[in-house]
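Attaching the record inline, Q. Sequence:
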Amino acid sequence: MKLLPGKLPPRLLRQLLRFRGAPDRRVVLGPQFGTDAAVVDLGAQCLVLKSDPVTFTADEVGWYAVHVNANDVAVMGAQPAWFQATIIVPPATTTATVRKIFRDIDRSARALGIAVTGGHTEVSPAVRQPIVAGDLQGVVARDQLITSRGAKVGDLLVITKAAGIEGTSILARSFPAAARRLLGPTGQHRAARFHHSPGISVVAEARLAARYGATAMHDPTEGGVAAGLYELAVASRKRLVVDLDRIPVLEPTARLCDHFGIRALGLIGSGALLIALPEAQAAGLVRALRRRRITASCVGRVHKGSGIEARQAGKRVPFTWSERDELTKVLS
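Structure, as predicted:
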């Protein structure tokens, strides 16, 4: 079996996740499909640990690495605190490029109140562009820990911002001429900066959702919102009934996806946050998010069962998702 770019196939991944090293009772949450980070019991508090590389883009790669890792710590209810990076660049990379990676890591970490605590740097012919593999930890009180396994029957499902935010930015920067034709010069510039505005960070909204009693949160990345929904359903062992018409897709995203023949819901989705929470708290959370100029929409409900029940125009429709991100079809 030859692998394609993107995430490992779920069946293979589940087989591999059985290799867990030595048993340790302090590991509250170890390797598991659909979870965002690991959790270790420290007594009154839990340590949340996350590692994630940035491979889709070399532009602002250090900045991306901090934010994508911070997102996955924050959705567990924890405050991101300590960051390390393994930085690998190809031969002939300029010193200016390496300095920019370090400065971008510093800038984004400072903005989120995160300390940079170490890492590793290397020049290697094994890579074709700079790769930053981030590792980030945070702490949370044991009784405030949130995992993607916690969704309860009757919870409403809320999504923040829109689908495909990160992917839109990458497409607009990777194919600027096509984006200018589709969106105009101003539109191309705006879409190219989607990673900053609306932004790929979900730390602020995750912290707010935790205060409103979120039972589960998930940060959709590769595979987009569609994969994120599937992963949340699997992790929580619940059936998610989702109205696809309610999932926001911004116009630049829709136009770029139509041009490249790809699905917006399968496009790398950092910037959106999936939140399950009690119905009584959902309206208050949506209002609180909007006061902070973070858009949010109720898109579904948690039921008994398993998998995704998708609806569109009031009718049940097939739900499709893929471990292979739509972006890989274009960049390949």
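The CA atoms of residues 11 and 33 lie 10 Å apart. The first helix runs from residue 10 to 16.

More tomorrow.
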